[in-house]
Amino acid sequence: MNPLDANRLHLTRRSLFGKTALGIGGAALGGLLTREGFAMQQPDVMAPALPHFVPKAKRVIYLLQNGAPSHVDLYDHKPMLKKMHSTQIPDSIVAGKRFSTMTGGQTARPVLGEISNFSRHGHSGATVSDFLPHTAAIADELCFIKSLHTTQVNHAPAVTFFMTGSEQAGRPAIGSWLSYGLGSDSEDMPAFVVMTSRDKEASCGQIFYDFYWGSGFLPSKYQGVKFRGSGDPVLYLSNPDGMSRAVKRTILDGIAGLNEMKLQDFGDPEIATRIAQYEMAYKMQTSVPELTDFSDEPQHILDMYGPDVKRQGSYAYNCLMARRLAERGVRFVQLMHAGWDQHRNLNTQLKIQCTDTDAPSAALVKDLKQRGLLEDTLVIWGGEFGRTPFLQGKIEDTKQWGRDHHPYAFTIWMAGGGVKPGMTYGESDEFGFSVAKDGVHVHDFQATLMHLLGIDHERFTFRFQGRQFRLTDVHGSVVKPVLA
Fold first, then answer.
1. Cross-strand bridge partners of residue 66
2. Distance between CA 92 and CA 84 in Å, rounded?
3. Which of 114, 132, 139, 336 is in Cβ range 3.0-4.6 Å of 126 for a Cys bridge?
4. Residue 73 near residue 129 (C-beta atoms within 8 A)
5. How far, in Å, CA of 403 to CA of 71, rounded?
6. How much is the average pLDDT of 84-113?
7. What is the rounded CA–CA span in Å between residue 312 and residue 232?
8. CB count, 10 Å around CB of 243?
9. Is residue 215's pLDDT more than 50?
């Protein structure tokens, strides 16, 4: 028998796929290498050439307010709510709408007037609650979108929709898409960093699921790196007692050599991921302690972020960390804060939440601006949906006033990174219930975010299971009026 034919007969399916993928694996590994070894995280060699056009923003800091802030108490002033306080909301407004199980069977839906006072601020005249005085003071830096709407009425699928473009877990997060397509400007930090915090009172049970920052079907090296809120920010970075950095370097070189041999044999991109992540962890042994050392921060900067700024794991601490990460070239910082789910404690917990988050959020914007970073850093503040204009519970039980989940119209704000400052886009109706003008769907929001980073969301795709996937699925249009 011809030796070539004999060889083909003995070629297993596993061996065939392993060897034919070798070129891809080698190219992926080559994309990780520079003159210094593994210095820079480059865009994936298999990704489309990005950016598609000149970007306005180089990086994103997303301040996700998990649990859903009440838009009608904080930003979207509706005099009709006070006028009709305690009376039944018209059936024509709520007919056919879906709510969570907490009010799904509630027949009495009395209108609840806002529990805070509103004032106009800045040259833009933006309406902001007196619960948010620091945010109000920077109103002219902000672009408010008051017509956002989504399809989900429960927290996990709604957050997943915002962060991945799908209500079901398993798709890549926004930060994963960006690190895959754009790489990182940092030599010793991940491209995608996640931090979480929650209200001190632990008033709601929102869980931070790992798939909120997962890489989905993209290689796992693009998933977010979570910085912990206590102890070492990243586990297992420290060397064991008695191990010097030189010894650690020798060990890593040996492991990398073995992994490269396996990569040559099988071409598995996850082996390339393992090589890259070992190297990143080695560099983070030096960069992370320096990152978390606030001793070089002037006292007036610390004061601006508020009294919690030095408490590891607090929202204020994470906001300052976000600015320091942005300075060091991190592409996407996903900062998630829980505690906004006020079903039975609106009269008490909403103001506490605002007190804890208002100054740090505003300080981050001001801090970025005075350092010249706001111009190319997009800051986003918002939840996964809003809260109902009607009451959850009984009107006479003021201690347990609350609002249910509300996906039909709510407010977010953005700053820097190529958005128009000092403007408000879109409107809700007189009850703050439905979009009345210039609606913005979640996919529209995501398309606009990508556009600001120089990416055409329709062209930036990844082939998986026989079809091209994108962050915005098959929907979404750029909201051009908010672009500077």
1. 338
2. 15
3. 139
4. yes
5. 11
6. 90
7. 10
8. 11
9. yes
Find the mean pLDDT for residues 183-210: 89
pLDDT digits (tens, 9 = 90+) for 62-88: 999 999 999 999 999 999 999 999 999
Backbone φ and ψ of 278, nearest 5°: -60, -45
Neighbour tally for 311: CB within 10 Å: 15
Instruction: Rank 24-28, 198-202, 204-208, 403-407 by mean pLDDT and report only the highest.
Output: 403-407
pLDDT at 1: 47
Q: Which residues pair with 129 in a beta bridge?
A: 118
* Under 8 Å between Cβ of 155 and 206: yes
Residues 6+ apart with CB under 8 A from 323: 61, 364, 367, 368, 371, 373
Looking at 3.40.720.10, 3.90.950.20, 3.40.30.10, 2.60.40.1120, the CATH number of the domain 56-233+292-482 comes to: 3.40.720.10
Q: Round the CA-based radius of gyration of the chain to a whole number and report it.
A: 24
Rounded CA separation 458/471 (Å): 9
Length of the chain in terms of residues written:
484
Token pair in block for residue 259: 């992994």
Can you tell me the distance from the alpha carbon of 331 to that of 42, in angstroms, rounded to the nearest whole number?
12
Q: What pLDDT is stored for residue 275 in this prediction?
A: 72
What's the CA gap between 138 and 353, in Å, rounded? 19
Place 45 in a pLDDT band, splitting at 50, 70 and 90.
low
Under 8 Å between Cβ of 445 and 148: yes
Q: Where are the domains of the chain?
A: 1-32+239-289, 56-233+292-482
The whole-angstrom distance between residue 457's C-alpha and the CA centroid of its chain comes to 17
- Which tokens belong to 10? 């003995």
